């Protein structure tokens, strides 16, 4: 069984085997947590992402898919890049947000990562409501078949942390 921990802080400083990047299709960087990860990992991360684009995902990383690179200057050995769905009121894309989490854990298993830190995928530039993202993320990790022993959700800001804490309590209680 995977244990879930909540942390209020910065994903890029986490001392875990792998951190998950809320990336975009291009894998060539962006704002939010993606920008912070590229700044902290150094320029070799962008080179590694370009290699993945040339070899494996020539048309870009699809939404809900995940792929690992090294972490370079990060404390984490691996970065698992995934692309969250954008929020849309009239279309239910939750299966894609589920897939981000299950595929990231599957990739973590492939590289042998036992501790994995996630941001709140899709809740920034992609506008997914924090409470629904927390519900999906926590339920998916609880239900996953994985060798990952610890999942850390690293939340930036007390409000996001509190939403995850209420949801974790609700699902575990
Ligand atoms: N540590 C932890 N959480 C963070 C950090 C950090 N250093 N920085 C931001 N967050 P976002 P998305 C939170 O926008 O919604 C990028 O440009 C943030 O407060 O990073 O999946 C990509 O290239 C929010 O709760 O990711 C894509 O184009 C959460 O991380 C697009 O944004 C996710 O916000 C992806 O959008």
From TrEMBL:
<feature type="domain" description="Macro">
    <location>
        <begin position="1"/>
        <end position="172"/>
    </location>
</feature>
<protein>
    <submittedName>
        <fullName>O-acetyl-ADP-ribose deacetylase (Regulator of RNase III), contains Macro domain</fullName>
    </submittedName>
</protein>
<dbReference type="InterPro" id="IPR043472">
    <property type="entry name" value="Macro_dom-like"/>
</dbReference>
<dbReference type="Pfam" id="PF01661">
    <property type="entry name" value="Macro"/>
</dbReference>
<dbReference type="InterPro" id="IPR002589">
    <property type="entry name" value="Macro_dom"/>
</dbReference>
């Amino acid at each position: 069984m995977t244990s879930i921990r909540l942390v209020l802080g910065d994903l890029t400083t986490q001392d875990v085997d792998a951190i998950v990047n809320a990336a975009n299709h291009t894998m060539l960087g962006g704002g939010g947590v993606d920008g912070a990860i590229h700044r902290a990992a150094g320029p070799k991360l962008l080179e590694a992402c370009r290699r993945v684009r040339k070899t494996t995902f020539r048309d870009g990383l699809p939404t809900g898919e995940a792929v690992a690179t090294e972490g370079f200057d990060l404390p984490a050995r691996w970065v698992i890049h995934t692309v969250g769905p954008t929020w849309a009121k009239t279309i239910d894309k939750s299966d894609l947000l589920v897939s981000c989490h299950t595929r990231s854990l599957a990739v973590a298993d492939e590289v042998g990562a036992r501790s994995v830190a996630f941001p709140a995928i899709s809740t920034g530039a992609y506008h997914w409501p924090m409470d629904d993202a927390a519900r999906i993320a926590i339920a998916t990790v609880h239900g996953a078949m994985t060798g990952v022993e610890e999942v850390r959700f690293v939340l930036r800001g007390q409000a996001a942390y509190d939403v995850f804490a209420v949801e974790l309590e609700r699902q575990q209680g």
